[in-house]
Design brief:
This protein is α+β, with helices and mostly antiparallel strands. Among the domains are: 205-365 and 504-607, Major cell-surface adhesin PAc, CATH 2.60.530; 378-502, no CATH class; 730-802, Ubiquitin-like (UB roll); 804-961, Ubiquitin-like (UB roll), CATH 3.10.20. The protein contains ten helices and 65 strands. The strands form 16 sheets. Strands 8, 9, 10, 12, 14, 15, 17, 35, 38 and 40 form a ten-stranded antiparallel sheet that branches. Strands 7, 11, 13, 16, 18, 34, 36, 37 and 39 form a nine-stranded antiparallel sheet that branches. A hairpin with a 5-residue loop joins strand 42 (658-668) and strand 43 (674-676).
Amino acid sequence: MRSEKSYWLNRKAHFSLRKSKTAAGVASVLLGISFLAGPLVSADQVDSSQASSQTAVSSSEVPSTTSDNSATVASQTDVNLVPTDTQTSENGVTQTTQTVQTPDLTAAVEEAKATGLTVNQDAAQVKDTLDQAVADNAQQAKDIAAKTAQYKEDKDGYDQDVAWYNEEKAKSDARTAAYNQRVADLQNGDSQLVQDTVKALVQGQESQAQVNLTGVKNYITEDAVKRLGKDGILGQYATEQLTAADLTTSNPYSSGDNHWILMQVGDKVTATYTNLAAAKEGQVSLGRLVYTYTLLSSSNKAGSAIVSISNDPTVTATMGAETDSSDKALSMGVDLSFFDTKGNVIDLNDGYVILSVSSLNHWNGLANVSATDYPEAIELVANDDQGNPLSIGWGPYDNNDGYPAMKDGRPETRQLAMGDYFKLFGVTVSAENPVKIILPDGSVTDATQVTAGGRYSQENGHALVAASDQALQSYNGQSDVIGTYNLDPVTGVVTYTPAVRYDASNHIEKVIVGDKDTVATLPGSSIGYHDGALYAENDNEYVAKGATYNASQTDSDSQAWDSPSSPVKAYGSAGLVLHNGHLTFTASGNTPGVNTVYWFATNAAVMALTKPTPAPPAPTAPEVPTISYHDNQIIQNADNITATVHYTGAGDLTPKDNVQETNFSGQTGNDAVTIWSQNSHTFIPIATPIVPGYYASATTNPNQDPSIVPSVTVAVGDPDLLTTITYSKLGQLIPVDQDGNRIPGHDAQTYPNDPTDPTKIDDVIIPNIPGLTPYIDGQKVTPGTVYTPKYIGADTLVVYKNDHQEATVTFRDDSTGQQLGSVITLVGQSGQAIDFSSANQRLLDYLANGYDLVPNQIDLDGLQLRETAYDQDPGHRQDFIVRLIKEAAPEVTPSHDAVAEKEEVIDQTNQKPVVPQAQAVTPQAPATEQQGATLPQTGDQESAVKTSFIGSILMAMAGLMGIKLIRGRHGRGQDDN
């Protein structure tokens, strides 16, 4: 990771603070002022806009109650109140929950979402005031914006790191891919890398290495090794030839020597190889190798084997033992450990250790040489300086000089430099003077190779023939060639090689590999992988048997593969990619009596794989912040209470309803406590309007005076107030006559309203109708006086009766100036015709008794009083005077003298009055006493009737007789003119 890892940690955070506009003004709100102490306001003086004494606050000016109880209004700039729930209680209080939306919080949340932050919305919170809600929104917006900005900055830094990381990661991936490919190649036996490495290992040698053994029970002395070696390679490993003197427990060898030891089945010997050559490029230098050899089985009955452990780990070991049976195997287990120069063990599980195994032989018939087949001696010829031929003969085994034999798996050759011998005789051998072969028949051949026949051929004259004629050397279809002579004609060097024959053995050397090891077979190698083991499925020992190369060099063949330095050593080799480090080498199939001997070689290389520099740690993405926000809500409460005065009953004159209204506003805080703008409100009293002709007769409150709706104090939750004022018609003063008929010209009069009290009436004045006397409920009332009705809504009938008037008729004797008889008092009603019948009767009586009328009296019409009605003036008595003169005739005493000097009162009120026409009269002050009292009548009615009848007759007679009457003047007693 770059040093910039802390890039985002070292950056400075820059924030842009957004100022929100806030109103600085504070709205004053006048709350709950009552007018209880003020003057009454009439309903016709108050409209609905004046009915409430509270200053109206619009919904956009929601009061915010602060700690000092002052009313403030939060700035509504860019604030949106969204109703989310409205509930109305049973008592009419409306509670509206409003979400306070502000653009800064909305924008901050949307920006956070767009930026990729995890945004959670928590439950809404209720604030005590709008100001608090707006302030909390602003704080939330600020916090969210800060986190968003920080995340953006961190994300930008992260994106830069990712770009850098991706570039580095691509490079690392390329290195890793190459490394992985190399690892895969190393672990793949068919890969070119492994095959090339195995090939190189096969050819490698560690001649300077040193070995130290542990666990050896018996070393073989050097003398014994030499002695056994005289018998060739097979005889070298004849355990039966060892004696106790040949064995020692002390190591007679130096660390740079091969170590010869005798092992029994089950013995373990550990060889530690050091002083190893430097590793090649791409390989790890090894400090030491530790191989543990375990003899697993032996081909001899003693269960033993002679083992030669080389100081060179690439040569490894050779082992051998007698063969009792071709089925017996000589097996050696090998456990390999590898250490680097620092002493660290190489972990084989990584598969970086590549091991070569070599010298895995398979022969189907062991090559051997007959020790008793001696060849015919060869004779060579060359010319001397004179051109004379000189011949010299040579037998390879003449003079008992050995016998044909095998050495190191190859036939042992015999060689002689014949040129030197020719030179002793003065013959110089050269290309110009080459050495040639003389055949047994004496002929000279230019052939440089001749075959030696066996006894059969010798007996038949074919002891030596040119190689091209070796078919002549056969017996019963079998070759009778026992050897071959090869001549270098230029140098004269002649070489004899015994012919090789093959026995019936099937010798196979195998390496049993671990289950986890990867087998690497080499192209062109004879070694393959079969049933968990590496070995040559076919003969790889002899070209004659089908092998590509001979294992051991024979004749002139230089391409033998089974030697540490052979250039074609890989022909008998294979490779392994080690994972567990355990191998088992085994050989079997030899013919009994032929020692089982085999050599296996290993070489190892640890590939120096440098693990690629890992990619820098991927930058850690900034943790996506999780932000939570919540809506802020305010709970507005409103209770609009109206006080309505409803008027009814006055028809078109009914006043309009008077409506007062007050608005309670309150805010419910997060503690569920509601703070109201006012605790109560008092509606002003409303005076009931005066409606002409009507009175306020009733109210819905039976205990309430209808003249005024008193002030009422209401609180939140109180119901609307409704007071109904009912108007009723005022009664009328209705003038009627005695019969109940309306009096023409005198309409009914509605009671006058009391100008100050709608429930009362003003003074009701009894109308004055001249000549009539009003009666109410049978009681005489005085016109012009105040009448108080019992019920102001009920009509009052005023029965007008004619006035009780008095009229008097006085008879006076003008002769004496004395009153004649009693004064006749007539009682009647105003407008009623005065009944003068009684007076007229008396007049007739006086006339009949000698009296005569004084002429020209206005009150008389003939011999009777003129028809006249009672006048309209109840305070005025109408007096009529009849003036009489006494004649000189003898006096006749009237029939009524018995009641003379007594006043006669005649009540005429029972007669139907004459109703006078209406006159404009000024109401009079009420009378202080009854006028026109009816006086008691004198005499009885019967005598009066009789008298009246007699008088009438007398009057009629007097007229006929021409009696002169003296008329009296009406009323005032004045004389006639």
